[in-house]
Amino acid sequence: MDIAQWPTLSAGGLDEKMGFELLQLSAEVTRGRMPVAGNTQPFGLWHGGASCVLAESLASLAAYEAAGPGGAAFGVDLNATHHAPARSGWVIGEARALRIGGTLGTWEVVLTDDAGQRLCT
Fold it and tell me: Strand order of the sheet with strand 118-120?
């Protein structure tokens, strides 16, 4: 998939509703971001569920790239460890391939704030 196709493919979906922006797309490294505004829990902090949506989106897109034309990608596991809160700005995510096999791949996703502080792994 060409990165320019992404807005059309995500139209009306959860990523669009959450303000997801795709910044880089490859099987090895996929990057994107979401605004904190509109994705907070009742106390005004970035929602932990939003971390999971961002991580899932990035890893799924990377897996789709790894599968190649005609392939399919499905998530089998998602874990999130929250390290620090975010109150404003953007949460930037990077999915980095740890292993891409014939039928199973693993990506580590790290989320940071605008200052580069790790928020979630």
Answer: 21-24, 29-35, 90-100, 105-112, 118-120
Q: pTM of the predicted model, to two decimals?
A: 0.92
User: Does 21 participate in catalysis according to the annotation?
Assistant: no
- For residue range 28-42, what is the model confidence (pLDDT) as tens digits? 999 999 999 999 999
Using DSSP bridges, classify how beta strands 29-35 and 90-100 pair: parallel, antiparallel or unpaired: antiparallel
Indicate which residue of 21, 28, 56, 108 is catalytic: 56
User: Mind listing the pLDDT tens digit for each residue in 83-96?
Assistant: 999 999 999 999 99
Higher pLDDT: 72 or 100? It is 100
Q: Please answer whether residues 57 and 9 qualify as being in contact, where contact means their C-beta atoms are separated by less than 8 angstroms.
A: no
